[in-house]
Design brief:
The chain has about 325 residues and is α+β, with helices and mostly antiparallel strands. It contains 8 helices and 16 strands. Helix 1 packs antiparallel against helix 2 and helix 3 crosses helix 4.
């Protein structure tokens, strides 16, 4: 997992403590390392080198952040990834553990990629169950983050849904109708006539238990359950094979979603096609075994086994999520 050393604040405090002066009071200034409030002050040669090093370190940390953000593939996730990196800096420098709200899969993926390039930072993602898509991220110094934090709670919604089935949107709308922000809610697991289970930040569990009274027109009760009581199933899939001249995303998505190439070109241009949760910008992006392709409103496919044919084409297994 992870690694930049966010040592700049500590070094600054140490430098000021070591070379404290009665006057003038030292201040940071964008144009130079230090300056006096009343009169200029000339550092001894050794101290000038130290102060210069501190400034360079501050610039290096900022530059590193900028470089990491440039590497974010999904430009829609940049601001949220930036927030995660800043949170990681604070956690590492203070030797504490901080937690995000629930993140969408694209933001989670881009954040984990960026955090893996930093030192003195450990990151743990938790969504409540193995197949969770929306997860919370815990970041901290490795010495502080020694176990998985308890940052996800599970709630069960029950009611008489036999005569009035409710959709994912119905449950989500009722939960948000209590005044809770979307980022405080994780996955919602539908259970048919039994209702649904969902994940939430623990501090809001009691509020939801007392506030959630209806889903659609169905009166409901909401109770807290252990994470181990979550009833989830592996996703249902079906597999089929296709023979293609290339492994381009437009070719395989055409076969997997039964869409024309021209339609796919428009979808890619509009940012509606993702590979491994990252928005695709080029029709010629090459896919490999294990890649997951999602198209807005059409679902997802996974690239299975790939074999070459005698005629130089590719026999590709496509796994469609139902």
């Amino acid at each position: 997992m992870a690694a930049i050393s966010f040592a700049a604040p500590w070094i600054l405090r140490r430098a000021v403590q070591t070379f404290s002066l009665p006057q003038p009071l030292l201040h940071l200034n964008p144009g130079s390392c230090f300056h006096g409030t009343h009169r200029p002050f000339t550092f001894p040669t050794s101290l000038r080198h130290t102060a210069s090093g501190i400034c360079h370190l501050i610039q290096a940390v900022k530059g590193n952040f900028d470089d990491l953000l440039k590497g974010v593939g999904d430009k829609n996730a940049i601001e949220e990834v930036k927030h995660i990196l800043e949170m990681a800096r604070r956690a590492s420098s203070r030797r504490e553990v901080l937690h995000s709200d629930f993140l969408t899969p694209p933001v989670l993926k881009e954040s984990m990629i960026a955090l893996e390039k930093l030192a003195d930072v450990k990151a743990v993602a938790q969504g409540g169950y193995p197949q969770a898509e929306r997860c919370r991220l815990s970041v901290g110094h490795p010495e502080a983050l020694t176990s998985d934090p308890d940052i996800v709670a599970a709630l069960s919604i029950t009611g008489n849904f036999g005569f009035e089935p409710c959709s994912h949107g119905d449950f989500l709308g009722s939960i948000l109708g209590t005044g809770i922000a979307r980022e405080k809610i994780g996955d919602i697991i539908l259970q048919g006539e039994k209702g649904a289970q969902f994940l939430v930040v623990p501090e809001l569990a009691d509020y939801l238990i007392t506030s959630l009274e209806k889903v659609g027109n169905v009166s409901v009760s909401c109770t807290r359950i252990p994470l181990l009581a979550l009833e989830y199933e592996p996703p249902r899939t079906k597999s089929f094979k296709t023979i293609e001249a290339s492994l381009r995303v437009d070719a395989l998505a055409n076969a997997g979603f039964k869409l024309s190439r021209s339609k796919l070109v428009n979808l890619i241009s509009n940012g509606d096609v993702r590979v491994n949760w990252t928005t695709v910008t080029k029709n010629g992006t090459t896919l490999k075994t294990g890649d997951i392709v999602s198209v807005s409103g059409k679902g997802r496919i996974k690239i299975g086994e790939i074999n070459s044919t005698r005629k130089g084409k590719f026999a590709v297994e496509l796994i469609q999520y139902l």
